Amino acid sequence: VQLQASGGGLVQAGGSLRLSCAASGSWFSAAAMAWYRQASGKQRELVASITSGGSTNYADSVKGRFAISRENAKKTVFLQMNSLKPGDTAVYYCNTPTRASKGWWGQGTQVTVSS
């Protein structure tokens, strides 16, 4: 299983970014996917998740601002982040909930929101 997150960067408060996560393997379409983030000095937290059928769930802190989606044909999951706040600054990771529960993580992408 390979998951490659990309799309992070530096943005001003109120701006937007779109993160992408490309997966390898035929398992993707059947798997739930999720985005997590870890701010400096804090524990990693779940930001948003999407089931194989497209049902979504969000952390209260991002509801109404972030949107998770997936394109199974491209084996890619996205995180559209709008109205970004300095508190959203973190390294963002994509993962399956199963791999996350086992502590298996790949590289994340840094998102920095300036005030």
Mean pLDDT: 96
**Biggest sheet features:** 6 strands, mixed
Largest beta sheet: strand ordering? 2-10-9-4-5-6
Which percent bin holds the helix content? under 10%
Rounded to the nearest angstrom, the radius of gyration is: 13 Å
Query: What is the H-and-E element order?
Result: EEEEEEEEEHE
Give the N-terminus to C-terminus distance in angstroms: 37 Å
Could you tell me the number of beta strands? Answer: 10
- Poorly predicted regions: none
| Proportion of strand residues | over 45%
* Count of DSSP-assigned helices: 1
Computed structural class: mainly beta
Overall spatial form: globular
Characteristics:
115 residues; six-stranded mixed β-sheet; 10 strands
Description:
By secondary structure, the chain is mostly beta strands. The chain has one helix and ten strands; from the N terminus they run E-E-E-E-E-E-E-E-E-H-E. The chain has one helix at residues 97-101; strands at residues 3-6, 9-12, 17-23, 33-38, 45-50, 56-58, 66-71, 76-81, 90-95, 109-114. Strand 4 (33-38) and strand 5 form a beta hairpin. It is globular, with a radius of gyration of 13 Å. The termini are far apart. The mean pLDDT is 96.
